[in-house]
Structures are given as C-alpha cells and as structure tokens.
Design goal:
Length: 209
C-alpha cells in the first residue's frame, strides 16, 4: 500500500541520469580504444597492487568526468564502453551506498535465478557490503577473469532493476512521479546489464576490442 511506503525512492545520481547508450561502431573514438587497450594490457600483464588500487580510486580522486571524456562515447559492446560502464556503476554505488544496498536487497528478494550468487555481494547486503562488491568487480577487470567481472556487474544491474521496479510498483498510487523515475532507472539498469552480458560473451570469443 502507498501509505506504508517510507523508504527513499530516488537515487541522487546525476551519473546514472546522464547515462547514454553506445553509439554506432563507426563513430567510436580511436583514442578511447587505444587508451582502454593500453591500460588493460599494461595492468593485467603486471598487476602491481599499488597500481590496481590507484585505478580503483581514480574516480574518487578525479571524478567521473575524465573517464567519461575518454570512454563514454564508445560502443556499448567494446572494451572502452565496458570499462566506462563499470566505472559508472562504481560511482553510483559509492555515491549512496545505503540506498543502493536497499534497492539491491529488495531486488534480491524478488528476482528468481542465480544473479545474486553471480553478483557475489555478501548477505545481508548493507552499505559496506555493496561498496566492497563495487571494488571487487572493478578489481576483477584488472586482476581476474575479465568476462566474469562483466558478468558480475551485469547480474548486479539486473538485481538493481528488479529492486527499482518493485519499489516503483509500491509508489505508483501515492507517489506517481517517484514511480515513473524508478521505472526509468530500472530500464537503464536493464540496458547496462544487457550491454555488459554481451561484452562478456565477446571477450570470451576474443572479439571485444
């Protein structure tokens, strides 16, 4: 019932609101591919812990704008496009871990399947657990199985989409604007998740460039 709805329903997330889908491959910026490829190859060939930690904290220290400028216009199904989406998700999580964990927990309760296991957040999932998940996913791009890291991020997105949709349904009567906003967020999470899943498949076939 709408009268029983008390939890905050809006992400304070300019990053997610600013998310745009991938462009036509012909319009991909060559610099995006060169920088993404060089960065990933260098770190994965020699994953020094201090360098990996600096990459994890890059957007904490410099903001998301630098990453967006480099990679946000790349195709969704490319290396730079995938890196951009992972960094974007990490910024979203760290911007409001309490609310993110609430939506994640809600999504986990309504979503059937193995996505909660694939995503790998500790349960129950609070602000610390969801922040740790964001770091583990990003770290996995540089030090683990790249496709698995993408799959984990995609599972996270699907869980978040379900959580947003569930809260939107509850808010429909008493807070229609909130419901509309959350429905849009759910669709965006679904879109990002689908992009990351396809990128994981391309990586496994050695065709993600």
């Amino acid at each position: 019932m709408a009268d029983d709805f008390h939890k905050p329903a809006l992400f304070d997330s300019g990053a997610l609101d600013a998310f745009k889908g991938g462009e036509d491959p012909a319009q991909i910026n060559r610099v995006a591919h060169e920088t993404a490829g060089a960065l990933l190859s260098r770190v994965r060939d020699d994953p020094q812990p201090e360098i990996v930690e600096r990459l994890l904290a890059f957007t904490d220290d410099h903001g998301i704008d630098t990453v967006a400028e480099l990679w946000s216009r790349a195709s969704a199904h490319s290396l730079p496009g995938s890196l951009w989406r992972i960094y974007l998700l990490r910024v979203l999580i760290r911007q409001d871990p309490e609310q993110t964990s609430y939506f994640y927990e809600r999504g986990s309760t309504v979503l059937r399947g193995i996505d909660p296991v694939v995503a790998g957040a500790e349960s129950p999932t609070g602000p610390k657990e969801i922040t740790d998940l964001a770091d583990r996913i990003l770290r996995g791009l540089f030090t683990g199985d790249f496709a698995v890291a993408l799959d984990r991020a995609a599972a996270f997105c699907r869980i978040m989409a379900q959580g947003c949709a569930a809260i939107a349904d509850e808010a429909e009567i008493g807070a229609p604007e909130t419901a509309s906003t959350l429905t849009t967020r759910a669709l965006r999470f679904e879109s990002i998740g689908a992009d990351l899943t396809q990128s994981a498949t391309l990586w496994r076939h050695d065709t993600l460039d």
